[in-house]
Specification:
The chain has 174 residues and is an alpha+beta fold. It has one domain (35-172). Helices cover 26% and strands 28% of the residues. It contains 4 helices and 9 strands; from the N terminus they run H-H-H-E-E-H-E-E-E-E-E-E-E. The protein starts with 11 loop residues before the first helix and ends with a strand.
Length: 174
């Protein structure tokens, strides 16, 4: 009779780590389906939501002109444990600092006094897209995933995205 080894974790810390990695992987797999979509796919997806990502009508043109991106949305994902920020590049030169891997983005939720960063897992690294070899594609949708510990930020809340000099205010969580 052969001895079988159990797949049980050896400690509670290992179990918690395995659950965290599993949740992160599930969120990443769910989000990768549209991580680099074309404009037509992004427009079709956006038309189904009906909820604007930025409240004021003057904010979107300002963000596009200043930072070279069009905000497509900020949505809860992974059962509310993460926030998925999607944006489409309209000007690669202006958008280059946003896709710089050295920059550390975070969401600021003043109503709940929460500062949400990008998870940095040992297996996956930071859960966001960056430019490889400084190659940024126009009309592609990119993503940044933010952790939402304690599910403090809920649908309908307003947050501010900060990334270096980039500051987008009044993003509404969908």
């Amino acid at each position: 009779m052969s001895k079988t080894h159990s797949m049980r974790p050896s400690s509670r810390r290992d179990a918690a780590r395995m659950v965290g990695v599993a949740m992160t992987m599930a969120a990443l797999v769910a989000s990768l389906a549209g991580c680099a979509t074309s404009t037509s796919t992004a427009q079709a997806r956006a038309s189904g939501s009906g909820t604007p990502a930025v409240d004021s009508s003057t904010a979107a043109p300002t963000v596009e002109a200043k930072y070279g991106i069009h905000v497509e949305g900020l949505r809860l994902t992974a059962a509310g444990a993460m926030l998925d920020f999607r944006y489409r590049v309209v000007d690669p030169q202006k958008a280059a600092p946003i896709l710089d891997g050295r920059m550390k983005p975070y969401l600021l939720d003043e109503a709940h006094a929460a500062k949400l960063g990008v998870p940095d897992t040992p297996v996956l690294g930071r859960i966001r897209q960056t430019s490889r070899n400084h190659k940024i594609l126009t009309d592609r949708t990119y993503f940044i995933m933010f952790g939402n510990p304690g599910k403090a930020v809920q649908s309908g809340d307003k947050v501010t995205l900060l990334l270096g000099e980039l500051k987008i205010t009044d993003l509404t969580v969908q």
